[in-house]
């Protein structure tokens, strides 16, 4: 699968305009929970113990918040603003659980671009297959000008999330 941006970027924020939106979609699996547990050490049984999770207020297994927000990390790093981007600040609210098998879509829309520094502010959200917002908030992102100047399209391994980007009219 190929992930590409439709807006040309020649500098750290060049080509990034207020209103530009990018989306990235992925189906979450139990394997994602296992991998995140291995990486993070988050062994909360609500993520893997079916019986315990069934008796919780969530009524079943829930995916770690880091897996859910991780799709926004990929969107920012790969698409908007793109390679060389790192988070300076995030303010995210987790509004509903994500479960194995859910198809989630991360979305980011540019709300501000600094003229004096390579900094972009984004409105962010993640929705599930039913359109329910499971995460929302904002992010402030810095993009390394030296990486942005060398940006090129990347071919990603099979199974990489689908990605789209829309420019404002």
TrEMBL record:
CDD domains associated with the record: R_hydratase
GO MF terms held by the record: (3R)-hydroxyacyl-[acyl-carrier-protein] dehydratase activity
Biased composition (Low complexity): 1-22, 157-169
Pfam families per the UniProt record, alphabetical: MaoC_dehydratas
Region (Disordered): 1-23, 148-169
InterPro entries, sorted: HotDog_dom_sf (IPR029069), MaoC-like_dom (IPR002539), UPF0336/Enoyl-CoA_hydratase (IPR050965)
UniProt-listed GO biological process terms: fatty acid biosynthetic process
Coiled coil: none
Domain MaoC-like: 22-119
Signal peptide interval: none
Family affiliation: Belongs to the enoyl-CoA hydratase/isomerase family.
Protein name (database record): Acyl dehydratase
Species the sequence originates in: Nocardioides currus
The organism's taxonomic lineage, starting at the top: Bacteria, Bacillati, Actinomycetota, Actinomycetes, Propionibacteriales
């Amino acid at each position: 699968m190929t992930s590409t941006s439709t807006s040309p970027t020649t500098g750290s924020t060049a080509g990034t305009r207020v209103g530009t939106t990018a989306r990235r979609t992925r189906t979450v699996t139990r394997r994602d929970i296992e991998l995140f547990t291995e990486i993070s050490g988050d062994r909360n049984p609500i993520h893997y113990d079916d019986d315990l999770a069934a008796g919780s207020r969530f009524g079943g297994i829930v995916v770690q918040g880091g897996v859910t927000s991780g799709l926004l990390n990929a969107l920012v790093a790969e698409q908007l603003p793109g390679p060389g981007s790192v988070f300076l600040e995030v303010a995210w609210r987790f509004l509903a659980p994500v479960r194995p098998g859910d198809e989630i879509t991360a979305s980011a829309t540019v709300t501000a671009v600094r003229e004096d520094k390579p900094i972009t502010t984004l409105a962010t959200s993640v929705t599930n297959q039913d359109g329910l917002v499971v995460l929302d908030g904002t992010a402030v992102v810095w993009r390394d000008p030296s990486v942005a100047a060398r940006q090129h399209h990347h071919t990603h391994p099979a199974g990489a999330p689908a990605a789209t980007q829309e420019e404002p009219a």
